[in-house]
Amino acid sequence: MGHIIVNSISKEYRNRRRQSRKNGCIESHFQDPIPVLDNIDLEFDEGEMVCILGPSGCGKSTMLRIIAGFEPATTGNVIIDGKQIEKPSSNHIFVFQNNGLLPWMTVWENIELSLRHLSETRDRAKKVAEHIEIVELEGFEHHYPHQLSGGMRRRTELARALAVNPNVMIMDEPFSGLDFMTHMKMREEVVNMHKFTGKTTLIVTHDIDDALIMGDRIVVMDGRPARIKLNHRLDFPRPRDFQKIPELNKLRQQIFLMEGVSYAV
Amino acid sequence: MCHMNSENPKIQNWGERYPIILTGFAFAMLLLIWDLLARFSGWSNQVFPGPIPVFISIGELIGNGMLLKHTIASLFRITIGFYLAVLLGLPLGILLGRNKICNAMFNPIIQFLKPISPIAWIPLAMLWFGIGDMPAIFLIFLSSFFPLVVSTTITVSSINPVYFQVAANFNFTRMEAITKIIIPAITPSTITALRLSLAIAWLVVVAAEMIAVRSGLGYLILDSRNALRMDYVMAGMIVIGVIGLLLDFIMRRMGQLESTSWQHSEIR
Ligand SMILES: Nc1ncnc2c1ncn2[C@@H]1O[C@H](COP(=O)(O)OP(=O)(O)OP(=O)(O)O)[C@@H](O)[C@H]1O
Ligand SMILES: [Mg+2]
Q1: Do A102 and B165 touch (CB under 8 A)?
Q2: Binding site membership of A176 for ligand 1 (Cβ less than 6 Å)
Q3: Which of A101, A235, B30, B183 could form a Cys-Cys staple with A145, CB 3.0–4.6 A?
């Protein structure tokens, strides 16, 4: 479960109305369509950890939202396990770039949202406790999101996503805005979680090292509209030290060059 | 007064520690000024009674049960009218806040009806509902219904869309989206809206009772005027003020109960 085919999707935004003054009279018309994605073809295997890189504003979030079913592609489609994606579903959970926890619910209640299908209260409580343990938030069950640190909130959201047992986890910049150490820890946690559950995981990140350390596959997007510039399978065991693997080092240089950085440390 | 405070740290500390003393002092001053005005204005006691005769009259009205009867009548009407407004206004506000088509259809109508003062509805209310509680309840309903719909619509449509994406992602039913997202998200500002519209309703109840009914604090005032008992008129006004304060106090406490737990997160 969790086999994803992205079938030549393109995306244009044309929803912004603009008013302009031409020859003194006000004209109201639709802006020229903004192409964001251009004919993206991708295929992810079951259980793959895919890291997606690309400059800011190139359309990574847009692609993830289309895969998650939050918005339609202009052309093309996404097929997960043989089914075309038309709307969001708990089979493919999106972990939001901004905080997606419900602020009026405690950690416990937020995670319980994923387990609403369990009618037995006892089972539910046991599962919630299990997932709180996975992300090491024991003792914070009854805290509200605003009482948690940024990293704890991400972990709660991770636990909530895991608890629903989706086939695909979609994470938009799960590490952004975290301090260095928390970033490292969260990365380790995501790697462990992936090892443990074997779920297909799509991660957008700005950090090339993240991608080299975690990814089974690394995808680089670039351009306006964005195309796939690089799609590379990484068959190296984890934990990895990419500095000791010449092939990864070469790839790193290559990606830096692609993004216009000529000397990388 | 504030100015004096800032210059004199001693008084400031006092005021911070015992605000009730300052409030009491201000009220005492008000009573004193009222008394002096009544004594030296040149008007007779019948036209401008001072505080002492008015408080004696309040005692009389309490003693003969009139005050209780009229207060209960007013509270009954405001309760019914306000509840009706809440029961119909909040769901309609949620619908208009979530559904673009309904919003486009009904919001302009609501916006158009809202600025019409409930007082302007009095002739129609009397014609339609005759004499009795009904026209008064109708007017109170109108006074809170439109503001509640409008404020609920605005609050609902400003809920962070991420929460609805979460709802879709976790397969919420429509009912779950209402109970787990919309209602908790709008509760804090709805309590404020309820508080404001209850205050308006309390303003309107007095006006509504000056027509078509023979009970309630508004009627007490009207009837006392007809009997040229200005002391009763003032007694009625004081009771209206006190009950208005009490209603506001109750609503404020409700707001505090609710907002203690999670609301800070909205600020961040
Ligand atoms: N609703 C929208 N309407 C119009 N244009 C949009 C909309 N959403 C995104 N865009 C445009 O699409 C482009 C890609 O946006 P997207 O958020 O996918 O970028 P991103 O790669 O995730 O960037 P970042 O790394 O900064 O998060 C941007 O240029 C943005 O202006
Ligand atoms: Mg993004």
Answers
A1: no
A2: no
A3: A101
Question: Token pair of A156, please?
Answer: 């709660």
Nearest CA to ligand 1 atom 26: A56
pLDDT in tens, A1-48: 888 888 888 888 876 555 555 555 555 555 678 888 888 888 998 889
Same domain, B91 and B169: yes
Ligand 1, atom 30: nearest CA belongs to which residue? A57
Q: Which domain range does residue B76 map to?
A: 51-267
The answer to whether residue B151 is domain-embedded is: yes
Higher-pLDDT residue of B88, A250:
B88
Residue numbers in A near B165 (CB within 8 A): 70, 88, 94, 96, 100
| Average pLDDT score over residue span B88-103 | 94
Task: Answer whether B261 touches A (CB < 8 Å).
Answer: yes
- Measured distance CA(B69)–CA(B65) in Å, rounded: 6
CATH number of A4-91+166-258: 3.40.50.300
Residues B34, B143 share a domain: no
Calpha distance B262→A143 (Å, rounded): 9
Cβ separation of B265 and A146 shorter than 8 Å? yes
pLDDT in tens, A212-243: 889 899 999 988 888 888 888 888 887 788 78
Residue A9 makes CB contacts below 8 A (sequence gap 6+) with A37, A39, A40, A63, A66, A73, A74, A75, A76, A77, A78
Of the pLDDT bands very low, low, confident and very high (cuts 50, 70, 90), residue B5 is: very low
Residue B90, strand partner residues: none
Per the structure, how many domains does chain B have?
2
Contact criterion met (CB below 8 Å) for A232 and A218: yes
- CB proximity B186 to A under 8 Å: no
Q: What is the pTM of this model?
A: 0.81
